[in-house]
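Let's inspect one such protein example.
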Amino acid sequence: MKTPESRQRLALALLWITPALWSVNYIVARKAPGVVEPHLLALGRWALAGLIVGFIARAELWQKRRAVLAAWPQYLALGTLGMFICGAWVYQGARTTSAMNIALIYSASPVLIALGAVAWLGERFSARQALGVAVALAGVMHVIVKGQWLALAQVQWVAGDGWIVACMLSWAAYALLLKKWPSTLSATARLAATSAGGVAVLLPFAVWELLQPATPPWTLQAAVLTALAALVPGVGAYWAYGFAQKVLGASRVASSLYLGPLYAALAAWGVLGEPLGMHHAIGAALILPGIFLVSRAR
């Protein structure tokens, strides 16, 4: 049986690993257009991930089946936020925006988590944190407008950035609700129940995509992308995030997203060949200190 000390060490190690696992999803998202539709990819990802973690936690899920069924609205809500919006909408946004933009916009999630903790959980909010919110959100906007503040009318707005902003908001809500709705389930069993909620929401949208004449046929490449999304940013990242948050708390785990832009930049450059612009560098220089000011221990 794991001791509290070993659980603490594992959770601290996962703070460094989880953002790297999530960066794989940015690669999948950029490879998916023309290969597999967004809701089909998200459905396949979470159906496979749910089966894996459900099998692992089958004894616990059966033992606590009444508690799981009683809390089904919570799992449906978490599945909508974490698997439907933060799944299919990421893939939708990646059709027109870059992996680096996705990572930088997502990296502002801890700011929203801190704001939500004040509004929902009654946590205090200092002037230093307010400054951090302003700085981080300025960085997000700098990325979205591509640094062209003096020529906003000439900026070619990218719809994908809007999809990712919605995903950022949804992830903050997901993280806050994980803390607001405590559960007796382990991280694995809770992820299985949440995946079931996400699959239920995704299913009608995926069926609709299947019926569209422009939907590409299912190929080996589509299967590989789906399996990769299920195993690495699906089972791996979500389980790691849920476990670490249960051990360390929401605010400390949210700080692990500091590493997201670094990992994503390396992945986008090395795998996708995406160039890094000056607006990315300036945006990161604003977002990361802003997140630090918001999330550091009070």
